[in-house]
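quick one
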Amino acid sequence: MCGIVGYVGQRDAAPILLEGLRRLEYRGYDSAGIALITSEGKVFIEKKAGKLTNLTDHLNGETPAGSPGIAHTRWATHGRPTDLNAHPHTDCTGKLALIHNGIIENYAEVKRRLAGSGHDFSSDTDTEVLVHLIEEHYAGDLVEAVRRALNDVRGAYAIGVMHADHPDRIVGARMNVPLIVGLGDGEGFLASDVPAILDHTKNVVILQEGDIADVTAAGTRIIDLDGSTVEREVTRIRWSIEAAEKGGFPHFTLKEIYEQPHAIQEALRARVDGYGNVSLVELDAIEAKLKRVERVYVVGCGTARYAGEVGAYLIQEWAGLPASSQIGSEMRYSPPPLDDRTLVISVSQSGETADTLAPQKLAAGRGATIVVVTNVVGSAITREADAVCYLQAGPEVAVASTKAFVTQVVVLQMIALHLARLRGTLSARQLHSFGLALRELPSQTAETLKLAPQIKKLARRWTDVRSVMFIGRALGYPIAMEGALKLKELSYVHAEGYAAGELKHGPIALLDPNTPLVAIATRGATYEKVVSNIAEVRAREAPVVAVATVGDEEIAHYAQDVFYVPETLEPMSAVVAMLPLQLLAYEVAVARGTDVDQPRNLAKSVTVE
Ligand code: AGP
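structure w/ 2-deoxy-2-amino glucitol-6-phosphate:
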């Protein structure tokens, strides 16, 4: 939700921190701030509401020399996005500075207590209590003061702390929110995510819940909340910095749309062989549990939930298990039956979404088997899992999810095939043909991307459109919902995705010549029914765009625009049909001049409920 970065070493901290913030801005952009200890031993601090450029314009390249330093980019939770509420926050002495991602749940009570003992607060944030709490506990040992303070708070945090009297260190700590330590040559880093420090080191330690890291130029020592030293392994990051950069595309969103053929290839790597055998070794250790499963829930939020709809549909169809998709933020209010015969599959690109973590915890507590589908290694969601299937899609930086969606669908398809094999519900021939169809997806999605010029032309006609309806049946329905979500997020055009059969039960009243309809009409069992729905729409003079299978000439009688996608087996059409809708949302957004990579009001990972 917020991004934090810290540096300690011989170099000047400011340029390293500002560049780190630039790479973390996808995590929130309500304000940005930096603090460092100058060569004269003073604490320099500057922070500005709004995007990072507000801060850098204000600094105008004039940052003092010195190290260590910490910096922050904010997605507001407590307190409006103002200069005062921006991080870093300082204590009463002005010597101690702190940045924070997360929420301190008992901040009100702690604030009252600290105010009563004379602490002055200058912001409306929950974060500020932490810096005063550390000040309260400080008696010359910064790490110990941080440890004691953290024992007084509840909630979620990744923090970076520095003190003018300790110019040789920064202290980081983590609880339910990501934080890594970067190990450089004679220097150390803290960051919410790898891209922030990848220019400087590829060796990182992924901190675990309750870890407190004392980071110095000479090395890092990690203790737990009780003060005992803990050992954590060093992970070597294999991404290049280019992978985390735009790579020549005007936006990360477009870059990630174009990365999809490769991302799918990576998701399939070592999981589907040339004969179409699908095997997820990640699930081998829980084979006995999976064989006992009697029902399945696929849990996620937003885009991940729509991928979950596809997954649940195919698990039911292929593995013959009752399966449904669950909205993460709703599941706990009326939990479905959960026991040791239940499989819960949590789907989350970031692995940090609080609304998905909470029902997962509930299900784990009731004995369900938990399989996690995520992109981020070591993320919170992986902690309480019986098995983890990574997307292997590479970092997704754009706030609107694209390559994560298609790889989530592909990984869920492999899980469904894996379950079908274990349960003997599909024949060997069926299993192989679906496996081989999966292997075609990288080239078929690459082919689909050639629609870009046609889509761009259409998008130019849609600059003034106020509302768009998306419809689909069976697997086309979640694709319609995800298509509508993409258009909303990226272009701020109102859009809704409906089950095509529902149209005549109400939503058709919204259609008129100025309200286009996008229909998922790829070949499959429901094709003719979708065509009938399109005919009903044409009779109301609403413009129709169809996503159809190459070679389908009939559809052109009903739709003014047709995006032809390659022919696949029906279950795989969910993947190829998605790409034109992503491109459409992207091009409409560009034509309307919105902030494509960081749409207003959104954050990449939502770590609050
Ligand atoms: C997608 O474009 C979103 N911005 C959003 O719906 C996202 O998919 C959702 O917040 C879940 O995120 P996660 O996959 O990281 O859990």
